[in-house]
Amino acid sequence: RKEVEQDPGPFNVPEGATVAFNCTYxxxxxxxxxxxxxxxxxxxxxxxxxxxxGNEDGRFTAQLNRASxxxxxxxxxxxxxxxxxxxxxxxxxxxxxxLIFGAGTRxxxxx
Amino acid sequence: EAGVTxxxxxxxxxxxxxxxxxxxxxSGHDNLYWYRRVMGKExxxxxxxxxxxxxxxSGMPNNRFLAERxxxxxxxxxxxxxxxxxxxxxxxxxxxxxxxxxLFFGSGTQLSVL
Lengths: 111, 114
Known about the structure:
Strand content of chain B: over 45%
Oligomer: heterodimer
C-alpha cells in the first residue's frame, strides 16, 4: 500500500465548476499535511497547508480528517489557470521536511 | 529575490558515466533538500542538509550517489557511475530555518541515462 494515495484523474471540468480531490495517508502518526501544485514540467509549489480545523484560502478549502486519515482539497469557481497536477503531501513523524508525496491528481479546466 | 536554482536543467549521459547536479538554495536558507521523481513514480526524498551537515540521508538509493554542501551554501549531487534507473527529475528545495515547513523547490534537473 502506498503511503499517500490519490486518484490520478484526470478531472476534466468546465470553468466555474467546483471540484474536490481526496487523499488518504497510511501513517497515523503523521503531523503535517500539505497540498502542492505542479504545472507541467515545473517544480512543485506549496498551495496550502492543511490544518485539523480546516482552512480556506480564497477559492481553495482544505480539510483534514485524522480519524479516517483523509485529506481533501476543494476548488470553487474553477479557472483555466487552475489546470495543473495537485499533490497531496505528508510530513512523516520524526522526519524534518522528509515529505511523502502522493502521485498527484491531474485537473484540466476547459472553457 | 532569486529562487532555488538548479544546473543543468537537462543532462543526457550514457550508462556508466558520471554526472554532477548543482543546486543553489535561496540565500540565507540553512536547510537544503534533494528529492527526485523517476518515471511514473512519486517524488521521493533523498536527503537533507542543515548548513553543511547531512541531517538525514536515508533516502539516498545507494552508494553511487554522493551529495555535498561544502561551506553550507550550494550543494552538488554526483551520480557515479550512472545507471539506467537513475533517469528522472532531480529537485532541490530549501527552507529558511528549523521548524520552517515551507519548502521552495527549484525547477529540477531532468537526467536521462541512455
